[in-house]
């Protein structure tokens, strides 16, 4: 009996020890598995030496290269049947298999520098005119040289919710010479008329009457009546544009436009200009647009004792815009009829933003064809005589443009182009004229064929909405002239710098600095001369006292240096004018 009890005790003790060892082994195994799942891989630093106390598994993990990223996945992604989504009994299935994924990361990609997209502020152009219900502004100013300016502007909405803006203005100034005076009176109407829910009509009616006198090389004791030196100019015009806001078919854009102008000046000369444009654009895909621009224009010119001339221009320009290989392309052609003569010009443009840079390169080849309108010639040179005829000018351009963006504030770039002109307008002194009795005239000359090299550069800096600084430089070099010996009246180099500063909501300060090299013209002895280079500084400021009243001040030619844009027509010195603006809200 005692022996049986003894064997039973030995058996129980042996069984307990054996069971304890098995339990400890299972516990160690389970702990090891759990540790592996939650182990965080430690990256070995440059000077760190592995400890000899590490086990094989730890050393293998510590020896992983720096560029290896270890990802441990405990669950596999699972696609469910759409009909089973949001069912309470549709539970996900766990996957207990750990997936070890290793990615080799290049060292240069371990640290990225954030480069924000360059945002270039642009002027916001509205399709429609949005005014308050009713507002009237009166602007008045007075300065030296008996310089006065008055303007009355009235904006309102009618009962049909159409927008209207009417402006009437008058400006006059008198210099030292009895003939050195000028006055301008004008009227301008802008309207947005709602035709339907999806379309409206933009209208513009304008009248501008300018009166000045040809004082160049005329003695101060004027020998003849002032009517002999009168250089009047009257421009009237109307413009109609139909805009279709079709939200049902946003991929289609169609905006026809009709323009009619009449210009009258000296020697009972006048011209009528008619323009009809029908730009059409259709989005074929998300990255492809098809464009067709059809344009017809007519320019009719009349002058006393000379038979009038009429020029016709018909242009059709189909093109395809698309995006490919991270670049923008425009490919098309421009067939034209110039007074019945057929011409064909290519339309090719390429635009590419260089990868990982803020550089945009544009390359292209296109042509600009326009009427040499009498009103435009008189704007470039207000002292021209009535032309004997008008022509159609063409400019065939091959260009390359490079634009840079430095953050969100600084933008700059340059462009290089080769231009081939036909019927380019030049201006030179009219020979064999009675200057003392009639004043000094310039003749408008059309160069039959010439080529130029043009270089443009620009810099623009904007800090928030407080400061805007812009510069533009243009250099023009003539390579060949078929008829004329010199590019008469053309400025070869010009630089324009502008500054706008708004310290607060009440103040606004504007500055303008201009520099240009003198043009080449013939003097009274028919000898070519180069005019002096010009440095011109202008500035203006305004202060809003309250919602109704504000003050303004403007200064021109602040360097007080008389200059000549056109030979023997000297400018005035410092011109200061200031005034108030009152709003009848």
Describe, in plain words, how this protein is organized in 3D.
The chain is mainly beta. The protein folds into 2 domains: 1-33; 134-583, TonB-dependent receptor, beta-barrel domain (Maltoporin, Chain A, Beta Barrel), CATH 2.40.170. The protein is built from 4 helices and 27 strands. The longest helix is centred in the N-terminal third of the chain and has 37 residues, at 2-38. It starts with a helix and ends with a strand.
Topology at a glance:
Layout (H helix, E strand, L loop, with lengths): L1 H37 L17 H7 L5 E6 L25 E6 L29 E10 L3 E11 L5 E12 L6 E16 L2 E15 L16 E15 L7 E3 L2 E8 L5 E16 L2 E16 L2 E19 L2 E12 L2 E13 L5 E13 L2 H7 L11 E15 L3 E20 L5 H4 L3 E22 L3 E15 L11 E9 L5 E10 L3 E3 L5 E3 L3 E11 L4 E8 L18 E9 L2
Antiparallel strand pairs: 1-2, 3-4, 3-27, 4-5, 5-6, 6-7, 7-8, 8-10, 9-11, 10-11, 11-12, 12-13, 13-14, 14-15, 15-16, 16-17, 17-18, 18-19, 19-20, 20-21, 21-22, 22-25, 23-24, 25-26, 26-27
Quaternary state of the chains: single chain
CATH architecture tag of the largest domain: Beta Barrel
Number of domains: 2
Please report the total strand number as a whole number: 27
Report how far apart the termini are.
Answer: 123 Å
Biggest β-sheet: count, sense, barrel? Answer: 22 strands, antiparallel, barrel
Let me know the CATH homologous superfamily of the largest domain: TonB-dependent receptor, beta-barrel domain
